Amino acid sequence: MKLLLRLVALALPLVLAACGGGDSTTTTLTGAAANINLATAFTQTNNNLRLVVEDVPALRGFAVTNTNTLYADIRVCNPSDDTQCVTIDHVLVDTGSVGLRVMASKVSGLALPPVNLSNHPGDVSHECFQFVIGGLWGRNAVANVWLGQQRTATPVSIHLIDDGATPAVAVPADCTNATNGSVLSTAASLGANGILGIGNTTVDCGYNCTVGDYTGIGAFIQYYHCTPAATDTSTCGPASVAANEIVYNPVSALPGPDPQDPTVPFFNNGVVIKMPAVSGAGATSARGELILGVNTYLPGSGNYSDNRVPNGAAKAELGVDYQFNIDSYLNVTTTFRGTDYPISYLDTGTNGIFFSHPDLAGYVCSSWYCPPSTLFFSADISDGKAIKTNLAAPVSFQIGNGMFYTQNPAISDNAGEAIGQDSAKVFAWGLPFFYGRQVYLTIWDFDPLNPPWYAWAPI
Amino acid sequence: MTFNSTLRCGIAALGWIAVGTAAQAAGALGEFHSMPRAVVFAARSAASMDPGTASSAEAAPVVLPYSVSEEVRPDGSRIRRYLAPSGQVFALSWKTLYKPNLSSLLGASFPDYARAAGTAAQRGGIQRQFRMDANDLVVQSSGHLHVFSGLAYKPSLLPAGVTAQTLGGG
Fold this sequence. Notes:
Number of helices of chain A: 4
Largest interface: A-B, 70 and 52 residues
Strand content of chain A: 25-35%
Low-confidence stretches of chain A: 1-30
Oligomer: heterodimer
Number of strands of chain B: 6
Strand order of the largest sheet of chain B: 1-2-3-6-5-4
Structural class of chain B: alpha+beta
Radius of gyration of chain B: 17 Å
Radius of gyration of chain A: 22 Å
Strand order of the largest sheet of chain A: 24-23-18-19-26-20-25
Low-confidence stretches of chain B: 1-24, 36-58
Shape of chain A: globular
Helix content of chain A: under 10%
Structural class of chain A: mainly beta
Number of helices of chain B: 3
Largest sheet of chain A: 7 strands, mixed
Mean pLDDT of chain A: 89
Number of strands of chain A: 28
């Protein structure tokens, strides 16, 4: 008998059948006897905002709950008028991507202007943003973005996810192919009202987009230039996007340091994520905090949250050498039971821990691990660069059955196999890594002498 | 663009071939990949690449059951085609700073991939890894930020002794 415990829209979504054991049983889920709501202490300052993991029925899509989906409220304003704003709730906070992408319907009243493309005079920008599976289509727009009390220094390009009954501009075939036939065009299918991409780089695309060349080896087109009145992309073309037109990391777009006055606080170089510890059985909700800036706090300078990395915190630099150390590019290295995983990263947009190891092969249930009882592990994380300068740091984690026995959206023990390319090299530390920790993530401006890094310590 | 044919030591039984991209037809999976004969040379076995055995470097080259052709983009992104002696592409892998156009890389296999990927996409949400194994097509794909990597091969075309692990897959 099929034991349907939960459908989760995850990086590894699946319908769970009976796992292990030969008995057929029916289990009725009664849900948690009592709600477990966890929260870190939080005081609103000038550089922080609340984060929350919680179930949002309207955003479940096919899932039973929004497992380990990290949300925040983000405020978007018309770039010319700071009184014309909306606050969008339940935007997914994602350290695995870059840029703000929101359902177009959420900002329809703001009259956000299009992104005019200087390399294609008269034309405006549309974007097909792709995940490994699925993607987002819609026009780009210019807006000011507020993260808590901090606002982008100048308006930035964001991505409006076209969630209309029919797209304003018909989805081009190249984008349909790029997104595997699935352009996520509703909040329910995305699992959020938008994505706040605050990953380790300033922009969401590189050479292809700046040059506008998506051919050669063959890439899917990411940016298009279209006439403002276009309703389909038959007259559009692949776009070459200038530096101030490309979708930008909203944190990077906050005001930078004042060259005249080092005592003026700034918060554009990274973020701190603090989440409460969550047990294997999980929690109904988990509230944490996003602090803007890393190591920029100046005591006595005003009402700001301290974003300094504490003494004794572990640290690991991301690799930045794409030519000679390609696996480690924008990654760190995890070592587990003597095996190195050079494609490792911390990602709030991934809802479990994903890696493969022979010792766990016996616990696999449809790509998830389902040990009969909770297993406790330690792995080391070290620099992604070839010549390491930081000591490898041990990280404790657990693999258990929380997801099979509870519908709690916040769980800390769900893990599964890495299934993509280089699956033997991948160690994706999803949201469970962040529970019970303060995690510091810096943003790279592509200066090879100043690589981005992670740091972390118990909360 | 041509690139250095460096024989990488330490990679078991893997040889590299220089290619002149201007004169080649870039084959999709299952198709035939042509390159100028003049710049093709047989791959050497790992043993002859050992710097400590200079004399063995003089030995006659060992012809391996496959060869590799690599294209490199100006941004460093690269695609490798794994070729049977006939020139047929039995596998390809990519490490790119963008999501590659799989409809051009997978050729006749693309509809199978599209079907499986489309099914996976129905579940919604952000998905950063994918695997399929059906209809003589294995695809493994992953990526985060703007860094993607993937492997695709046809099990029926794998030369004897070549496994997914040989190709860098899992």
